[in-house]
Amino acid sequence: MKYLSGLFMTLMLSVNGLLAQEVLPLYSGNIPGAKPTPADYQEVTVDRGERGAGITKVSVPTLTVFQPAKNKANGTAVIVCPGGGYSGLAMGHEGYQVGEKFASIGVTAFVLKYRLPSDAIMEDRSMGPLQDVEKAMYLVRKDAAKWNVDPSKIGIMGFSAGGHLASSLTVHYRDVKIENKEGISLRPDFSILMYPVISFTESAHAGSAKNLVGTDEALKLYFSNEKHVDAETPPTFMVHANDDRTVPVENSILFNQALVKANAKAELHIYQAGGHGFGLKNKTTKEEWFNSLENWMKANKFL
Predict the structure, then answer these.
(1) pLDDT (tens digit per residue) in 72-91
(2) Residues 6 or more apart whose Cβ sits within 8 Å of residue 36
(3) If we measure between CA atoms, which residue out of 39, 62, 189, 6 comes closest to residue 121?
(4) Which of these, 17, 48, 72, 179, could form a disulfide with 106 (CB 3.0-4.6 Å)?
(5) 258 and 251 in contact (C-beta within 8 Å)?
(6) Contact 159/94 with Cβ under 8 angstroms?
(7) 155-189 residues labelled b (16+ CB within 10 A) or e (exposed)
(8) pTM of the model
(9) pLDDT tens sequence across 263-287
(10) Residue 275 burial by CB count (10 A; 0-12/13-18/19+): exposed, middle or buried?
(11) Are 246 and 203 a contacting pair, CB within 8 Å?
């Protein structure tokens, strides 16, 4: 599938009054590993009220850029991966709303609409999302000057299955699945994982594992990201709720344990309640996890 080189798309979004964010195609040429998109495989967007847009059947990945006001920009950037079990994308409350929140504290946010694994549009559905998040990191770091971003302060963030994708980049950044002639580092400088799917072998979210890798045991091990942590794994901030019945809290605990064992920096916040998919606001507590995240970023000199 071909796209015009250097093409820029502008999408009018309405997210709490924020308008006219820039939307960039992730690939300017062929999408790696893509098959021709069937006529009946068309992207679908649903309005889910206060949770905002939900999207399925994504075959054309994009980045939506949330830039802070020039007088607030601090040079930090984060790529945001919404969740959705690798079957959809919660672009509203785990994407656009989060991008706006980051912009409000001076961080440039890039919300990734990544391809959803499907044999209909991919030669290898297990690698399509990883290719997309690698490409996102490649582009943001390559064009850091354009966005007034410090290339040494670019993080990755993900919610639920988007947290799995973010943690996949966090541990597999050396396994380059895209064209990278310049040898640009794909390593995130920090990682933020919100109620993430981490393991496909322990306390796994069966839907995410099935959608991404099916029954392939080797791929289940590859994408059990707690097994691939080392001393070079980026500093990681995690949030989960003990009563999460969708993605068990053990996922974050396993990743935290692996980080501690590897002497990598880690901070884990576990709420008594809140369930799954609460986005920016856990309504069971007055505590704001985003404030804790901001403090962590300052303590680690990312802000």
Answers:
(1) 999 999 999 999 999 999 99
(2) 1
(3) 39
(4) 72
(5) no
(6) yes
(7) bbbbbbbbbbbbbbbbbbbeeebbeeeeebbbbbb
(8) 0.93
(9) 999 999 999 999 999 999 999 999 9
(10) middle
(11) no
